[in-house]
Each structure stands twice: as structure tokens, then as C-alpha cells.
């Protein structure tokens, strides 16, 4: 369909809808990319418009700038101009975003003789979606996903790459498999059809029709189980430890990682990327890989080449005590006919640390910082999954958290060079199954860069191996003794609940952690029963000492999250006035 | 690995552990080691710089550091060995202790008796399930106390405190005294969870509002806490939506309960009481594992340190008698069960032959009651959940008591004769 026909078709679609027809909208289409502008009444309408547009044949992308009248626009964070420490740096490739995708691309590029820099606005690696998910390494993208879609292909390919990757980079990965439990009679005659679909995706599946066999695999599963689908290639990882491992290996091989550095503008001249402007200086480059997750549409916009809009879809998850979680030995999910096309439906994940993580649910939200949990969301997750695992009581709930999926309206991954600006490679719309797909995405981006004219010459000294720092709690007493002999600080346990030692915390700082959350995600200090109640004062002191900063500058997770903003008596000296 | 045989290992160098070690030494035990995970002895008391300690034990009004320094000095005078910055990783049922520090490395201690005095930890946000974001500025009252009164830094300037436990009440006053504003103390119950004297001296004297039957329903702010939503709750503790309002603040302090620390008790296979979260103990403070004793807030959370000290002394004396082979096993065992309006009782097992002090926590406040225990009936003028109810079973009372294998303790309203 031509651009004109697409616009016509869309206008007709909108006019048929009793609500959407009332909105004043500006609809245009350029080279298959639909642009929507105007005002809506509610956020649901904004999402509905985008989805309608994406559904029209021939539409490649949807840029949806419609905003509800009643909602305040997202607040732009007050920019603190930092020392321009990177000003004038000249590189071959700038990667924006150090999530698992950006880190995977960085590590792939570090094989070649190139100057590569990763720019990350957060104070540590993997603090967007990569941190806020249950840690599945999906076997495939789901039965309701088109097997020819990009995410379907990259998921299966990426999943297969995990064993080697985890072995080279020493991050946790287990192929636990997924058991999808059938509880609905109606689904039984359709199992052959599901098997067929799975074959089209290229994912192995085993149909278990014998109910007894299901209970043999998971003895404490719901009595309602009738059959199951077993997907052996599903795995579990720690997505943030995987991203940290990838980033560390990239840095070992010469990539520069600029944390706490935000891209504020992208300079394009003669339709060619020239500069990435950051709050710490301007970096000269010909290639910019946009792996900015939730913000990838805004980065593309800076380059004047927006081809998609990211609409955040929140997922809330609940973590359960490992004491109860260990009653189940697989990743579990309900197999169901009632499918929501915008989520795979979540499941009961068996995390790498032995906790059961339930969820996520799916809820469209207007703001990219809406990572708060809600009572309702937690309740929805509990209601949905508790029936499948009757032996996990509500009291075993440790905590809840939420993440935002960086979804485009077309819902597939958007991995392509910009059609407008040379040198801009968009790696956007990476939502679930992004963790599983990341290694294959990196491979694909490499090929795109090669085609776009980046000269790739392999480095003879590339080292694919990276060692994780030892973690005291996982070691035998013999190994512990050996470490303490090397460094007595291995004998000083700082986090009592998770048995994290002083050396592990110092090592995390040496490897790039600069904040409390950075230490927590890298070492588990503060993740246990007391949630940092005892170790917080100690970790703050270690951070201040190692980073050589005053205590007042130690943060939870970067600028603006200072933990101890005042010295004692400082408020009194100001007469109690806070300012 | 350093391997040592010792008489008594005391796990934890706070009020309970120090009292136990001192008592055991005074009973003639030489080879005692205190294992303390912190960098100094004293447990939580060095950071409790307010007064109110020792009124019963010393008949003096002391600060936390003053109170505990008397015991630390005694430990030094008696030359009791203590290992600081030492984390116990595991205790086995046959009383082998694996610990670690940076001086000895890994340690294996084989003890004839063990006294568990690990104290307690604070309940966290996750356990409450408060919805919302995770900004900087949310911390438990005890952590805030340590940061302010030991480290010397303020976590914030505009504070809401959730929960009216004693540490929360004390910290409300500390924040105000240090120039911060305390917007409110929010308590879900219809009465404060802390001692009455703390409500008066820490809130009323400083004009800090106490919002009873209220709770925090949501936390706001991406980087730093910006506000919390509070709401009144109904009889089932459910927030009433129409009563929701927002209070601007930069800090949320949680004082929502203390949990006895018993991960090590579990590795030793000790039976725990679900009502207290601590080991089931008999009147000698012996746990279900022979030769392992427990005392202080690890057994159940006390209201006054004076009782913690007494429990420590009893556990220390019992451990010493165990080492000296002088500790009789109870000839009779009467299991005490919590009945009406009794949340928990310690010890859980008595012989009925020796005088003993029972420590009870009640579920709700009541006036003019009698504590019923089998055929015994002890009148009390008032019982309140924050305050431990102490029942002294004297020889005389025990003579009267009809001894059965199991006795229920309940609190009933006094009916006029």
C-alpha cells in the first residue's frame, strides 16, 4: 500500500471507532512510517491509536505523538552540567545504552580493531529492563508470535548461544526447561497444533499427555493439571550479571564504558551521524548504535530520524522465599487459549538464586519512569499464578518489583539502519524475549554495521574469557580458606544475611560499581532478609573510602539519590531550614 | 582452619551475650569465647544514646552506652575472650561452630555448651508490601539510628515514620532534636506499639502528630522520596480509599516490628516457636538441643534491656552448670500454651518445681484482668501489647499449681465478685 492509501485506510479505521472518531488528529505517512499527532482524552486511546496504525498492512513503524489532555507531560530532569571529561573524544562507534543489548553489541564489536564507546545515563550497567525481569532465557517467542518475525528468529538463535556465552563469561545460566501446564479441557485436542507451531519456530517441545507423568515431573503442581508441554531449551540467568559480564569483557578488550553519562543531542550533517553530545562532553563518531531501550525513540528523535514510538508496558513481579520456591523444580507457565497478544502471559520463574518469581502482568503506562509497584498489580499476579503452585503461601512473598517493556506499536524488534540518517543503527523495541535474543541481536547488528561500511578487522589479541569475582557464600570452606590466605579481608563478612565479604564489595567497586544498588546487584549485599538494615552503614563507608568521596556523596543509584545528605548538626546550624 | 575445643561459646556480644558470658565465668568456667559480628561489643546499645536503661537492674537511669559499658568493662576485667568482626556461618547439632574473621580466617570451635544471643533484626518494607517506587530515603528506624548516632550523618530533613515501635518513637525525637521535621508517626493499630513513656516523652513533648489507625499505602518519588500517601484503615486494617492523603517528605522511616535472628538456630536443628520466632526454651533457657541455650531478643523481643540481661544471666548460669555436669534435666515438663489474649510466653517449658519468671506478650490491651494458668489466677491492673507481662511463679504459687503436661495461659476480664 502507498503512503497515501495507508493514511486513507487509517482515517477510515479511526472514524469507525466511537471514541477515537471524536479526537482531533493529524495523520500522515512517510515511507511506511505512520505519524500521529493531536490530543486524546485518555492514555488508553493513545495506545489504541498506535495499535490500530500498526495493524494496517504496509505500515513499517508508528510514531505516535498523541498525548492525553488530562495528563501532565513527562518532566524533563533538570540537567546538571558535568565536567566535560569526554569532550572531543573520537571513536568509530558510539553505543547508546548499556543494557544487556548494548553490552552484547559492545562485546561483539570488541573483537575488532575499533574505537568503541558505550554511553549509559545510569550509574551502572543493566539498570533498565535488563534488571527488572524474572531472568527467563526464553526458548522461543511464543506460539502466538509470527515465526517469521524478527523476535521469533533471534530468540531461538540467541537461546542456543547461551551455553557458550555463559561458559566464556562466567555468569550464571541453567537450562531448567519450561513446563507449560494444561488445565483446560478445551486445550487437549489442540496440543498437536501447538506442537506444529513450535516446529515452525524451530523450538523443541515434548507433549506430555500422561497426567501421572506431569506429576512425576512436578509432584506439587495443581491438582487441575491435565497435561503439559515441556520446552527443554528454556533457561534461567541473572540478566544483570550477564550484562555486567558482557560489559566487563568488552572493557577488557578495549571498549570504553561511560557510566552516568547521558546523551543529550545527536548531531547530523548531510544526513550522516557526526557527534553524540553528552552531559560530559561531545564525542565524534560516524556510527551510533541506538540501544537506549525505553528511550530509543528519543535518541532517534535527536538525530531527526524517528521511525517508531516506545510505549512503556509495565510488568509487576513478586519474589518468593527460596524455602518454598524449592518445592518446584521447573520454570512453570499456564498453557492457555485465552491469549493477550501483547504479552506472553508471564509465568512462575525459577530464578538462578532459587527464588520463585511470578509475573509479570502487563499494563500500558504513559510514563517511562513508572517503575513503582501497585497493590492491584501484585494482587493480579498472585491471583493468576497461586492456583498453579498451591504449596507456596502468600506469607512467603519477599518483595515485589516492576519493570517497563520498551514496546513499539508494531511489537516486533526494530533492528535496522535508519532510512534517513546514515550511521544511525536502531536497535529498538527490544522487549521480551530480549534476554534470550541479545547474543543474536549483537550478531545481527555487527552485520548491519559491516554492510553500512564499518571496516571490521579482527584483533588477534581478543580475549573471550572473563572470570566472575569469587562469591564467598557459594564456596566450600577449603576454597574460602585459600581466599582468606590471599587476602584476609575475605574473612570480613559485611552483609550478614547473604555472607558477602569486604573483598567482594571492594572488587565490585574496582569493576565499576559506584553506588549502593550497584554493590547490591553485583554482590547481593543488602538483598537478603534484613534488606540492607545491617550492612548499609558499612557499605556506605567502603564506597566513600574506595571512591575517595565524602560520605554525603554516596548514592543509592546515582546523582540525586544521595543516602546521607547532611552531616550531623548541619540542619541545626541552618536553623532547621531545609534548602 | 583453626580448630579449638572450648567450654562455652556465646554467639553475640550484646546485652544478653555479655550477661551470659559474665555469669558463666563467675560460675567458674574458664574457657569462654564471645563471637561478635560487629566491630565492637555492646550489640544495639552503643547507638541508643537516650536514657531509660537500667531502671530495674541498676536502679539508675542510664543511657544505652552507659548501661552496656558496665558489662563490657566486666568482660574485660574478667578477661573473657571475645572475637570481634567475627561471623558465625554455621552451628551443628553436636555443637561445632564454623566462624570466620580476617585475623584467624576460618575457625572451627567445638564447644561443650553454646549460648545463642544473636538479638533481632528489623522488619522491612518488602514484608509490608507497600506499593510504589524505590527511591533513596526509605530506611528502618534502627539503621537510621546507627547512621545518625554512630556515624554522624542525617538521612533526611522531612520525615514520616511508619509504625510506633519504640525505636521509631525514639527516632522521631532524635530527628526533631537534630533539626529535621517529623511530619507524622503513622500507626495501623488503635494504640501505639511502643512504651507509654516513649509516646509521652518522644511525641507529645515534641508536638509530633501520632496518626492511629492509619497506614502508608504508597511511596512517591523516583530518585528521592518526595511524598507518601497515608490512609485511615478499617477494622480489618484495610485502607479506606476516601481517606487517602499525601504527605510531602524526603524520608520514610519504618518501625514496624522486630524479628528474632535465628538462622543459626535453624542450622543447629533447634525447634522454634512460631509465636515468638525464637527457640522453644525451658525454664533454664535450654533449647530443644541439649547444651545449647538461648537468651535475649533472639528468644523473643523484650521491651526492657534489664530483662534481657536477666535472661542472659540465667542462660549463662545454665550453660556453666551444663559444662560442670551440674545441670539437671527437668524431671517434669509442663508445656505452656498461649490462650486468650496471649500472643506468646517464654519459657515455653517449665518443671513446676522451681520458681520461675514467665514473660508474656498480649495481643490487645485490657484493664483489670486476671492471668489464668490452670487453677492459678493472678490479678493484673492493666496489660498492653508493647509491655511485657511478667508473672513470677513463686514457690508458694507452684505448691498450689495443679501440674499437668500442658497448661494454657490466658488473660480474662476480672468479674466483680
Written overview of the protein:
The complex is a heterodimer of chains A (579) and B (417). With 579 residues, chain A is an alpha/beta fold. Chain A has four domains: 3-68, Histidine-containing Protein, Chain: A; 83-173 and 233-308 and 409-468, FAD/NAD(P)-binding domain, CATH 3.50.50.60; 178-225 and 311-407, D-Amino Acid Oxidase, Chain A, domain 2, CATH 3.30.9.10; 472-553, BFD-like [2Fe-2S]-binding domain (Arc Repressor Mutant, subunit A), CATH 1.10.10. Chain A is 30% helix and 22% strand. The N and C termini of chain A lie far apart (59 Å). The mean pLDDT of chain A is 94. Chain B is an alpha/beta fold. Chain B contains nine helices and 29 strands. In chain B, strand 16 and strand 17 (227-232) form a beta hairpin. In chain B, helix 1 runs parallel beside helix 8 and helix 4 packs across helix 5. Chain B starts with a strand and ends with a strand. At the A-B interface, helix 10, strand 24, helix 12, helix 15 and strand 29 of A face strand 7, helix 3, strand 10, helix 4 and strand 12 of B.
Summarize the entry for a quick read:
Chain A is α/β, with parallel strands linked by helices and 579 residues long. Chain A is built from 16 helices and 29 strands.
